[in-house]
Each structure stands twice: as structure tokens, then as C-alpha cells.
Specification:
By secondary structure, the protein is an alpha/beta fold. It has a domain of about 140 residues: 3-Layer(aba) Sandwich (Rossmann fold), CATH 3.40.50.1820. About 40% of the residues lie in helices and about 15% in strands. Strands 1-2-4-3-5-6 form a six-stranded mixed β-sheet. The chain is globular. The two termini are about 15 Å apart. One of its GO terms (molecular function) is hydrolase activity. Belongs to the 'GDXG' lipolytic enzyme family. InterPro entries: AB_hydrolase_3, AB_hydrolase_fold, Carboxylest/Gibb_receptor, Lipase_GDXG_HIS_AS.
Length: about 220
């Protein structure tokens, strides 16, 4: 099953954002200067959205002598928080935080239940970030919008990240969380016969695809 989601057009931003950030970081922050130039702003290859994002990124980027995971994660969180500040509080349903106990750890999840949510399906979301960055908060606005538009319960999974937790830890944990939700559908607000789907962006898309090949009783994958 594939949702005809208008929001998917906006999800493309996530991939673009990370690529732009890597260019800024590895090439000594060129956008700190070019993002403010008239030539950059008038270049027809850049949409208004791309220009605004590059300027936002340049304004938040702090000098660093290295690319530690902590530095990158904080920057990623800051960019998403600032870029999505007008969207974060727009979700009209309820948000509940829980933890799922897996074989190796308790994994935090966010459950987004829109007003008048349908009970016949549920979607499990895995965020992107190269298996190193990202969290439930960085991708909150995407899941908010998706849950509202589809009138479906969405669950966002905060699997553990590398390099502290290497493959296949994050994949195994994501599979365990998915199995738990499938086995306890009613506990998450849907009917026992509800269809369960998975979705993710970037690294999360790889996780959701792998889950489809590994975990039984996955009914659909949302294509992004």
C-alpha cells in the first residue's frame, strides 16, 4: 500500500539539507560568505527555499576543529529546530512518548495520534542521518504532517546511533521495535487486524527496506 502523500515533496528537503551541510563542513564553510552574496541569491539554480536554508545553515554553523559526532548532532538538531520552529506546534492530535524494551536496550518512541485517527492501519517511521545523526525531534515536523494528512497513527523510532553503536545494532533494534508493535497493535491504538507499514528517509529508508525483508507481517512500505 502506498499513501498519496503531498508531504513527500517536502521530505526531499531532508536529503538536500544533509548534502548541503557536508559541503559546508568539508569545504571550509564557503556558504558563510557566498550565502550572503547577491550572485548567490540571483542564481536561477537555487529556489527561494534553498537560498533561505543555506543562509540559515551559515548563520548557525560554528567553527570547529573536528567533525565529532557530538558536534554534528548538535548542529543537526539546531538546524532542524530553527528551520521547523513554525511547524513543530502545529500538530492537532496527541503526542505520547514511550519506550520499547528490546533484546539490547529500551528504545524511545513517539506516538502521533491525529484527531479522528483511523484504526485500520499504523505507520512506523525511521529517521535519516547516516545512522549517525538525527532523532525523533529533528524529524518531528515530517511525522506531524504525515499523521495529520493521513489520519493515521505514526510511530517515530529513536534507534541508537553510530559510531558508538555499530551495525547491526541499530537495525536489530529497529526490527525488534517493529515486531513488538505488530504483536501489540491494540496497545498502540489500532485494531488487531490493522495493517502495519514502515517508512523512512535516507538512512531510515534503508532500515525500513531491510525490515520489509526481515520481519514478517509487514503489510506495506511507504515509498519516499
Amino acid at each position: 500500500m502506498i499513501f498519496p502523500l503531498p508531504y513527500l515533496q517536502k521530505c526531499v528537503r531532508a536529503r538536500k539539507y544533509f548534502i548541503i551541510y557536508l559541503l559546508i563542513t568539508y569545504f571550509k564553510h564557503p556558504l558563510l560568505s557566498i550565502a550572503k552574496t547577491r550572485r548567490f541569491q540571483m542564481d536561477p539554480r537555487f529556489t527561494d527555499e534553498a537560498i533561505a536554508y543555506c543562509q540559515l545553515t551559515a548563520s548557525l554553523l560554528q567553527p570547529s576543529n573536528g567533525l565529532s559526532a557530538e558536534f554534528l548532532r548538535k548542529f543537526f538538531e539546531d538546524v532542524h529546530a530553527k528551520g521547523n520552529e513554525k511547524l513543530i506546534e502545529t500538530f492537532t492530535g496527541s503526542l505520547e512518548e514511550r519506550k520499547v524494551t528490546t533484546k539490547s536496550a529500551d528504545i524511545p518512541i513517539n506516538i502521533y495520534t491525529p484527531i479522528d485517527a483511523e484504526k485500520d492501519k499504523l505507520v512506523i517511521y525511521f529517521h535519516g542521518g547516516g545512522w549517525t545523526l538525527g532523532s525523533r525531534s529533528t524529524h518531528q515536523s515530517i511525522v506531524n504532517l504525515a499523521a495529520d494528512l493521513t489520519k493515521t497513527i505514526w510511530i517515530s523510532v529513536e534507534y541508537r546511533l553510530g559510531p558508538e553503536y555499530r551495525y547491526p545494532i541499530w537495525l536489530d533494534e529497529s526490527c525488534d521495535v517493529t515486531r513488538h508493535i505488530i504483536e501489540n497493535k491494540e496497545f498502540y491504538g489500532v485494531d488487531q487486524a490493522a495493517k502495519i507499514g514502515v517508512v523512512g528517509d535516507s538512512a531510515g529508508a534503508m532500515i525500513s527496506t531491510s525490515i520489509c525483508q526481515t520481519v514478517k507481517n509487514i503489510d506495506f512500505q511507504v515509498q519516499t
